[in-house]
TrEMBL record:
UniProt main location, coarse: cytoplasm
Record-given protein name: Adenylosuccinate synthetase
Catalytic activity: IMP + L-aspartate + GTP = N(6)-(1,2-dicarboxyethyl)-AMP + GDP + phosphate + 2 H(+)
Species whose genome carries this gene: Buchnera aphidicola (Hyadaphis tataricae)
UniProt cofactor(s): Mg(2+)
GO cellular component: cytoplasm
Pfam families for this protein: Adenylsucc_synt
Subcellular localization(s) per the UniProt record: Cytoplasm
Length: 434
């Protein structure tokens, strides 16, 4: 059996994926980002240093791990270089062990301008994007007009294509969005000096990974965002523009499904969401204040306050099914320390007629008409921060975990009890789908 692990978020992102990827990467050969872009913000706390990665996979802090950014990612060459230099400041040198797919779509300044212009025009109806140009870059890919990493290798062609694309964008920016036009020559001028730096990193990453698989090397696939930000299966249109659910790893890497049989879902012990869109279990009371403060719930990419809420088991069960999760990792359990009671949403009531749906109910986009139905659990007063063995957790915390296992019908293999690498409980070896 291969040892590959896919790690993905089961909520609306920021579940603590980066920390878990880092924890599982010590004996990995490759760590892979396969979708999204620098909208992601994955936080690592290692040796009392905080490192936030947006584009480079989280396992990269281990010196012998190879980082791979595959075709499914939208890559800003400027951000990529910035992140490589940021890591160098932390004495982590990645340039010779980081590869980027020739087929990865480029994010360039006009994508960012478009993202911002659209959000501005939408006003109160805005998505609340990270403003990183993600949506427009994926649009270019689907519209078959995108520039890709490989295009950086042909300066003449790059210049011609860039001129065409910028003309297309200027038409929209100026005529429709009433913004300033963009000068393609300026983009080219900024881009050309960067090409040398990344030239040798541009590879066929599918081949690299297939070679690793052949040699039975351990590969970790690091999802970005969360299942309900998925373009197809999320709370559309308040979603990101990639497939954050399991299909994204297949199209995003070019590897077949048999290589992904350990699929670990990362679930925060409560819920958060940054940006706009439905959030049925959202809290606006003292519990929100507690979760925000103790959990430091501020976006790693934009610094925005994250909205907080109780764990939503209706959504979580949907995430388990649509990703074929083999097990869960519950993060930030310690943030619940000190709460008198802890709630889990197990079903929804229709607001108007009081009709009760069950756990198996479908989640529609008609969230405004749904009211969460909660079961209430006793909280605990003891500190769980940094606990390393499940038997050392307070009885109530153990019960909370057991209840999540019952509801989701899959095991909780890992529990995270703090931001540091060492704040972790390995309940058992990771489960695999047969
Ligand atoms: P990601 O995008 O899924 O990688 O998550 P983020 O890094 O955006 O957000 C998770 C935040 O929670 C970061 O600040 C982490 O340092 C922190 N974190 C991760 N796991 C734990 C945990 O178990 N307990 C606490 N208190 N913080 C955690
Ligand atoms: P990680 O990987 C949380 C959200 C944005 C917005 C929506 C669309 O750190 O979990 P986009 O810029 O992608 O077009 O924004 O998606 N979003 C995230 N929320 N964590 C993330 O990544 C996110 N990446 C995008 O806030 O609501
Ligand atoms: Mg994040």
């Amino acid at each position: 059996m291969n040892k590959n692990i896919v790690i993905l978020g089961t909520q609306w992102g920021d579940e603590g994926k980066g920390k878990i990827v880092d924890c599982l990467s010590a004996d990995a050969a490759y760590v892979v980002r396969y979708q999204g872009g620098h909208n992601a913000g994955h936080t690592l706390m290692v040796n009392d240093e905080k490192i936030i990665l947006h584009l480079i996979p989280s396992g990269i802090l281990y010196n012998d791990v190879i980082g791979v950014i595959t075709n499914g990612v939208v890559v800003s060459p400027f951000e990529l270089i910035k992140e490589i230099h940021m890591l160098e400041k932390h004495k982590c040198f990645v340039k010779k062990r980081l590869f980027v797919s020739h087929a990865a779509t480029l994010i360039l300044p006009y994508h960012i301008e478009m993202d911002l212009a659209r959000e501005k025009k939408l006003g109160k109806q805005s998505i609340g994007t990270t403003g990183r140009g993600i949506g427009p870059a994926y649009e270019d890919k689907i519209a078959r007009r995108a520039l890709r990493m490989e295009d950086l290798k042909n300066e003449h062609m790059l210049s011609m294509r860039l001129e065409e694309i910028v003309e297309y964008y200027n038409h929209q920016l100026v005529s429709y969005y009433k913004q300033k036009s963009i000068n393609y020559k300026k983009i080219l001028q900024d881009l050309i000096p960067k090409i040398d730096f990344i030239h040798d990193m541009i590879r066929d990453t599918t081949n690299i990974l297939n070679e690793g698989i052949k040699q039975n090397k351990k590969i970790i696939f690091e999802g970005a965002q969360g299942s309900f930000l998925d373009i197809d299966h999320g709370t559309y249109p308040y979603v990101t523009s990639s497939n954050t659910t399991i299909g994204g790893v297949i199209t995003g890497t070019g590897l077949g499904p048999k290589h992904f049989n350990c699929i670990l879902g990362i679930t925060k012990a409560y819920s958060t969401r940054v940006g706009h869109g439905p959030f049925p279990t959202e809290l606006f009371n003292h519990v929100d204040k507690h979760l925000s403060k103790i959990g430091h719930e501020f976006g790693s990419t934009t610094g925005r306050k994250r909205r907080t809420g109780w764990l939503d088991a209706v959504y979580l069960r949907k995430a388990v099914k649509m990703n074929s999760l083999s097990s869960l990792c519950i993060t930030k359990l310690d943030v619940l320390d000190g709460l008198d009671e802890i709630k889990i949403c197990t079903s929804y009531k229709k607001n108007t007629h009081g009709l009760k749906n069950t756990l198996h109910s479908n989640i529609s986009n008609q969230h405004d008409f749904l009211r969460p139905v909660y079961e209430t659990h006793c909280g605990w007063k003891e500190k769980t921060l940094g606990i390393k063995k499940i038997e050392d957790l307070p009885y109530e915390a153990q019960n909370y975990i057991k209840r999540i296992e019952e509801i989701t019908e899959i095991p909780v293999d890992i529990i995270s009890t703090g931001p540091k690498r060492s704040d972790i409980i390995f309940v058992r070896n990771l489960s695999y789908n047969k």
